[in-house]
Design a protein that fits this description.
- The structure is a homodimer of 195-residue chains.
- Chain A has a single domain, classed as Tetracycline Repressor, domain 2 (Orthogonal Bundle).
- Chain A is elongated and about 60 Å long.
- The relative contact order of chain A is 0.12.
- Chain A has 195 residues and is mainly alpha-helical.
- Helix content of chain A is 73%, strand content 0%.
- Chains A and B meet through helix 8 and helix 9 of A and helix 8 and helix 9 of B.
- Chain A binds a DNA duplex (30 and 30 nucleotides) through helix 2 and helix 3.
- Chains A, B: Pfam families: TetR_N.
- Chains A, B: Keywords: DNA-binding, Transcription, Transcription regulation.
- Chains A, B: This is Helix-turn-helix domain-containing protein.
DNA sequence: CATGTTCTAGAGGGTACTCTCCATATTAAT
DNA sequence: ATTAATATGGAGAGTACCCTCTAGAACATG
């Protein structure tokens, strides 16, 4: 018993992703998103409580989409070492097939106005972070890398390093080179070797 | 034969750095900088052609200040391997003593409106980038790491990896842990070992 | 002291964006 | 058909910011 929506939420978020990739988070204005899909600005405020809520949703949908495959990769393969390599590879491969979303990930939640997010979305973000931390800690334990220093080294190996590799290229506007997955895997492996 | 300035350029840039570190590049507005030092907005336009010029100057002063010590570190030590380790260490140590400037570096020139910069400042930025590329290429050659893949691996080792380590902590608002330099050096060394 | 130069001081126009509001339209269920 | 629920469509108030512009203050030099 209601008028059907002309604009799907996912359609609005797609436009927001495109804008964020092209002009940065600050380019994701309510009017820009509305104009991109041909909707009046009022319609946006039926879906999102305000700009912070929209930015949070764009960020969370992207991160959660990324993490889905990331955790699967971490658990894959034969043993923790292979899982780490696969995870590193996944970061690069996913970025290759989702260049706009990857560009978005490189900004970080803070640039998407995290400080202004509504309670519930902050919770979702925290939960994702916790899951990553837990997975990294489990990997570090399985590899015998203990202590604060070991944990941080594993984080660098399976999270920050592959992201750095992606950043280096995407920020320059170039696509990822063919050998990127290979390089990420090699470097991750080198860092996972106990020093 | 002129009235002495009440506001030094460096004083304005200092305020801009503080604002950028706290609120991001978008927080560096002309009025915010003016208000931070107690100057009228008009005075800012005597020093800088406009907002893009101010942002460019903030970025360039910071990057050039950082690079000064970075190149010295790269050339220091005994052989290329030690130079790479020292450079990695320098990134972390400099970030520790210059937390605000480091936060600024983590954003990247693009976020500081690089696309709108005046010609001359674009040139300065390019020159800095070229010097880094050349130094990294020289290091890769001395280490016997050849080809596109080797070059990129060395870049990751002595530039992106230590920056990632810094980013992980500073973006969370925490200071760098005591062992950060040590960890950076170890990881860089692991990556500089030919795979 | 007179002069020319550089700077301060701050008002205000122009622009872009966020968000509110309300009349109107569309649908499902009664 | 009526009604309740939900959406559109778009005008416009409020706000923040960039930048310009003019008047005059402060200083070194002749």
């Amino acid at each position: 018993m209601a008028r059907p929506p002309r604009f799907e939420i996912s359609q609005l978020l797609d436009a927001a992703v495109r804008l964020a990739a092209e002009h940065g988070p600050s380019g994701v204005t309510m009017s820009a998103v509305a104009q991109a899909v041909g909707a009046p600005s009022g319609s946006l405020y039926h879906r999102f409580a305000g700009r912070p809520a929209l930015l949070a949703e764009v960020w969370l949908r992207t991160v959660e989409g990324f993490q889905e495959g990331y955790f699967a990769a971490l658990r894959s393969g034969d043993g923790p070492r292979a899982g780490g390599r696969a995870a590193s590879r996944h970061v690069v491969a996913w970025s290759r097939t989702h260049p706009q979303e990857a560009a978005l990930l490189l900004y970080g939640a803070h640039e998407f106005g995290r400080d202004d997010w509504p309670e519930e979305q902050l919770r979702r973000a925290d939960e994702g972070n916790m899951r990553v931390r837990a997975a990294v800690a489990a990997l570090a334990g399985a590899l015998g890398l203990h202590g604060e220093l070991g944990l941080e080294r594993v984080s660098l190996a399976v999270v920050d390093l592959p992201l750095s590799l992606v950043r280096r290229h995407l920020r320059g506007g170039e696509p990822l080179p063919a050998h990127a997955e290979e390089l990420a895997e090699q470097c991750t492996d080198a860092l996972l070797t106990a020093g």
